[in-house]
């Protein structure tokens, strides 16, 4: 066994982890082994949002300041406990078990992005609006999220704002089954265009970044089959080890920063608050869609 290699027990399985002391987030003093162990503790909260979905990872073999690459196809060789699903020419990992999560961590998979659609299921179980700033530092991002939340509340709907862990924020709304992805895209278009008309100095629906100026993009197109979004509780390969974290609307009102929720403090937060997305009951979007179509 190479020097420095350790063995992790994963129930009935074992995993060899090389270079456990390699620094991944130097600014936070987080090593490879730290990352793997902390992600294992996040597993019960993360896995419900990734199981039965196609997974795309971004791997950073030398830590967040090194070269990175996207990976859609399952790395080879893969342990027997790793489940995969084929879509076209790609054999995706399905992140549905703690051993699979730990194995991905051992491969320096620092970002986990999951498909909008569930495998083999044509109907969505949630609606997501991706709020994407044009500026790297956007002090109005939480104000933007609040305006989306206020509009949803006026329609009798509730949702959970979630930091992307990078610069943006997403609005996640579990829904009662029935609406199609096309229905949800139409709903997102309605929300986005309404808010853009009401707040033309804040929002845009212009997809090309070069044409947005400093406006915040309401991306209702990203939530669709074949596309991916950062999974709740994935880390992001940025200084501060930020974690994509669901928030309360009260927290949004206090204008937090993405790095306020990171790999070193997220476990304690989840112990006290739990997963805010799973706590929200599915919303009756079909009724709202019928009301909107009657306008």
From TrEMBL:
Domain DNA ligase D polymerase: 31-276
Signal sequence, renumbered to the chain: none
Superkingdom to which the source organism belongs: Bacteria
InterPro entries assigned: LigD_pol_dom, NHEJ_LigD
One of the Pfam families matching this protein, by short name: LigD_Prim-Pol
NCBIfam families per UniProt: ligD_pol
Name of the molecule in the record: DNA polymerase domain-containing protein
């Amino acid at each position: 066994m190479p020097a420095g290699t350790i063995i992790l027990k994963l129930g009935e399985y074992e995993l060899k982890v090389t270079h456990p002391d390699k620094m991944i987030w130097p600014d936070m003093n987080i090593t490879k082994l730290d990352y793997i162990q902390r992600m294992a503790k996040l597993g019960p909260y993360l896995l419900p949002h990734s199981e039965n979905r196609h997974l795309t990872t971004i791997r950073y073999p030398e830590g967040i300041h090194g070269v990175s690459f996207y990976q859609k196809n399952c790395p080879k060789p893969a342990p027997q406990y790793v489940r995969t699903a084929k879509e076209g020419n790609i054999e995706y990992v399905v992140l549905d078990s703690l051993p699979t999560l730990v194995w991905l961590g051992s491969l320096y998979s620092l970002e986990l992005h999951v498909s909008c659609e569930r495998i083999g299921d044509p109907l969505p179980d949630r609606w997501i609006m991706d709020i994407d700033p044009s500026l790297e530092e956007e002090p109005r991002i939480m104000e933007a999220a609040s305006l989306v939340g206020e509009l949803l509340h006026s329609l009798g709907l509730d949702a959970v704002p979630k930091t992307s862990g990078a610069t943006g924020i997403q609005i996640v709304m579990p829904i009662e089954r029935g609406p199609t992805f096309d229905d949800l895209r139409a709903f997102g278009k309605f929300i986005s265009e309404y808010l853009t008309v009401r707040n033309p100095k804040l929002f845009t629906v212009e997809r090309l970044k070069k044409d947005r100026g400093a406006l915040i993009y309401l991306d209702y197109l990203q939530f669709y089959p074949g596309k991916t979004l950062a999974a709740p509780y994935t880390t992001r390969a940025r200084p501060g080890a930020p974690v994509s974290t669901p928030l309360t609307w009260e927290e949004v009102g206090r204008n937090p920063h993405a790095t306020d929720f990171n790999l070193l403090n997220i476990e304690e937060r989840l112990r006290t608050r739990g997963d805010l997305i799973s706590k929200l009951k599915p919303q009756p979007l079909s009724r709202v869609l019928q009301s909107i179509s009657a306008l």
